Model the fold of this input.
Amino acid sequence: MKRRDFLRFRTDTGKQVAELSCEKLFVHYEGLCSGFHQAPEEAGTIDDEEWWAGEPPLAITSIDPDDFFRGLLTDLKGVDTLKVLDIQWLSQGEFRIRVDTLLAAFKATGSEIIYPSHSLEPSP
Done:
């Protein structure tokens, strides 16, 4: 999943607006924290039945969650307004801390954060 999968960018009256889906971000964050890494390359031949029998090796790559959130903040450079969607997903401990830190850093740039009217702004 790429960061752009949970960030949607658009222009509204000359301002750059991004929408952040906390639900999609949470699912990706859980994947980052799952401990999966790229499987080592297997060596063998088609004649070596133990090598080719069964499931192929797991080929999932993962990055450090800190690097991921730094990259997400970088993606938000130049955005004037961030609309935070699905905030009910922010009830998860460390995930909420990381998102709150991201939002605080974004707001410190002088940008605006909007919580849609159908959801409540998270309490500090």
